[in-house]
Amino acid sequence: MPFDLILRGGRVVDPSQKLDAVTDVAFAGGKVAAIGTGLKADPGTDVRDVSRFIVTPGLIDLHTHVYWGGTSLGIDAEEFCRLSGVTTAVDTGSAGPGNFAGFRKHVIEPSQVRILAYLHVSHAGIFGFSHRIMVGESEELRLMNPIEAAKVADANRDLIVGIKVRVGLHSSGTSGAVPLDIAIEVANEVGMPLMAHIDHPPPSYEEVLARLRPGDVLTHAFRPFPNTPATAQGTVKKAVLDARERGVLFDIGHGKGSFAFKTARAMLANGFYPDTISSDIHQLCIDGPAFDQVTTLSKFLCMGMELSDVIATSTVNAAMALRRPELGSLKPGSVGDATLVTVRQGQFDYVDVVGEHLTGDSKIVSEGVVIGGRWWHPN
């Protein structure tokens, strides 16, 4: 099969293959077709000189809110992804069983960017999240809709990758961990992983972790006090170490209130790296402090993580969390998505959710994306 597109001469960083080399990547039929030097172009092949760029598998943002127009927190997936180097946006609970059909028809299906979703166990998802109205959808147990959630998740397995629930003082009020228990029942019923949001107690970080199963994701994992994973002495809480040992995954989910440099410094100093790094992008954090996925990744690069480890959190690791191994890789036969970035050197100001600033010496910048084997929205 002739190649549709060749990315020529870039530095290819693909943690799924432990690959970091200057080489070519070719795409055909919507998939990665070959990797190697001097790949032969056909007369109709689109050949791009990417020798100035780093080529990675298409970045996956494991925590976004892209139900634009359907919820007040939703942002436009195509605009965000083009600027942020993201080829797969995973919406985490914007929609529940009562409004997922609209999300699918009006946003997901027309989108050129791949959108997958965790389905909220609450009937209408995250419906009361704005600058003026802040209603925790898990506060009211009458809104928990496990029967319909299981039906909708089962009927939309092509797009729904798991079940979402938000617990904590701001999202579940005095309901505590009860919504989490309901969501786990649904996840067990449909055989899917769960993503759990955590904010202020109740419930505690430890209570949430105790309920999570292997393959479940705790998002907002590096949040500030209270409900931080680190102790006052700068060590990692035992419950956190035990949860990782049994297969619970730890996701950043930066957002408006869920990532602190202080927490991250303590966790990284102990060798506890996040499994996945995600932006939790929505209307209330897209202009700061999260901004986008590459900015979120840059913060960890500036805090000492190696570039390949940072890229892994948004490619192969995220794909494994989604149970979609065809994503997050440039192995031949994988989905034909790629992201082009540069790492600029200088002095860059970064801010976390509590207002602490970090001056970093590096910044990851999106330079273009390939989706389905085609150059998408060239800059």
Outline the structure in words:
With 379 residues, the protein is of the alpha/beta class. It has helices at 77-84, 100-108, 146-155, 169-172, 178-190, 205-211, 238-245, 261-269, 293-302, 307-313, 316-322; strands at 5-14, 19-28, 31-36, 46-49, 54-57, 59-64, 86-92, 114-120, 128-129, 134-135, 160-167, 194-198, 217-218, 249-250, 338-351, 357-371, 374-376. Strands 1, 2, 3, 4, 5, 15, 16 and 17 form an eight-stranded mixed sheet that branches. A seven-stranded parallel sheet has the order 6-7-8-11-12-13-14, sandwiched between helices. Strands 9-10 form a two-stranded antiparallel ribbon. The longest helix is centred in the middle third of the chain and has 13 residues, at 178-190. 53% of the residues are buried.
Overall form: globular
What is the ordering of alpha helices and beta strands?
A: EEEEEEHEHEEEHEHHEHEHEHHHHEEE
Number of helices: 11
End-to-end CA span: 28 Å
Mean pLDDT: 97
Which structural class best describes the helix and strand composition? alpha/beta
- Number of DSSP E strands: 17
Biggest β-sheet description? 8 strands, mixed
Strand content: 25-35%
- The radius of gyration is 20 Å
Task: Please estimate the helix content.
Answer: 10-25%
- Poorly predicted parts: none
InterPro entries: Amidohydro-rel, Deacetylase_Atu3266-like, Metal-dep_hydrolase_composite, Metal_Hydrolase
Site (Transition state stabilizer): 166
Keywords: Metal-binding, Zinc
Binding site for Zn(2+) 2: 164, 197, 220
